[in-house]
Amino acid sequence: GAERLGFVVGLKESYGFIRPLGGGRDNRDGTMFFHFSSLLGEAPRMHSEVAYEVGTDRHTGKTVAQRVKVLPRGTIVREEMVGRFKGLVARAASASRTSESDDGAIEYSPAAAPPAEGGPPEGGAPEAGPEAAGPPAGGEGSTAGGGAGRGAGRGAVRTARYGLHRLDDPRMHLAEGDVVEFDLVRSKEGGFEFARNFKLLQKAERPVDGQRELGAVAVLKQQFGFLKCCERQGDMFFHYSNLEGVDPADLRPGMDMEFTVTRDPGSGRMNAVHITPAAPGSAVFEEVSEATYEGEVVSRLVMNKGYQPDTAGLLVCTLEGQTCKLPFSGPDLQDTRINPRVGEKVAFRVATDRKRERAGAAIGRVGVGRRAVEVALLPRPGKVATVKNTYGFIEYELTEEERAALKLEAEAARAARAEAQAAKASEEQQGAPAAE
């Protein structure tokens, strides 16, 4: 068969796995199995570049890699440019450069083009050290994986990963809320995207250190915790020794607190000090509209069980004279027992995350901080068809959109069952595939 290229991403005692370059796969994780008896020449190492042919194992009938040979390093172009974008630092990277960890996150919109006049990346002014890194600004459906995104407001917002090792200038310091221009690059070897070649466009506007601020307890540990700040993008570290007027045993997540932010002279990290209880309701993170709006569900909410987050639903509506889409999750339903289907009409209010809305405005995406809350089905006409002792049935007309959505759901359910049956049959095959 035709020769293909790929990278070795897994090695065992007598076999391994290749991540194909440009398609063609065997396993569900996108890799292809090969046995050492299929090697031509030297044995590969992890991340080796290889050439191979696709064949079929005569014992199992599975697709495998055959005639595998190691290529000189540099034969395969490992990265490709996706584009250059303007974004906002949602989580500042803090892991050391030597760790090569992409622990930072930048939110951007694919529609947000960089300034017309570009130029080489420029370093920011050196600072003493980064602020305490926190999670990206809140909002249901936010993601942390490279390239993942969500529909919100008038445009999709995606997340790109980066680490300190991606900064060409070690003096550059990026903090939560900074506006940057960057290259988005896709790794052909790992299949993930990351940001590099940064240009600092605007430093974040943040409260002056030393002023009193409001927030709420977000996380509590044995001797320390983190506060969700009303004005700062990241969560703020605090030690129990800096509490005033409250016993650590009385702290609870969600409690409103007032505090001052200062830089620790030893570590150089920002932290909260002089922390006192605030009146309940003092810390305001989002605003909910008084008005009620109407819209139509275009993507149904999937409420996952266990530790998996919900897959947000999406509705289309008209706000301020413009058509837009708003996400919603399980807690945003007025009655969690009633999950609206695609095509059904709903009533709702609009919640605006103040920090996320400010962040979106910085990259030209107004509305990314909005979501639908108190989502409820609109009343519809019907008639009582049957009445039993303690229950009954109501007949009502389905709209054309609802009929089409039900048909699609049925087809998706059949496809899912077929895939599950195929996966179960594959798992029943004993042992690893044998080579020819």
The counted number of beta strands is 24
Ends apart, CA distance between termini: 15 Å
Q: Level of helix content?
A: under 10%
Which oligomeric state applies?
single chain
Strand content: 35-45%
Strand order of the largest sheet: 8-9-7-6-10-11
Structural class: mainly beta
Gist?
With 436 residues, this protein is mainly beta.
How would you explain this protein's 3D organization?
The protein has 436 residues and is mainly β. Helices cover 8% and strands 39% of the residues. The chain has helices at residues 354-362, 400-427; strands at 3-11, 15-20, 32-35, 49-56, 63-70, 79-91, 104-108, 149-152, 155-162, 179-187, 193-202, 212-220, 224-229, 236-239, 256-263, 270-277, 286-288, 293-299, 313-319, 322-328, 345-353, 370-377, 383-387, 392-395. It is globular and about 70 Å long.
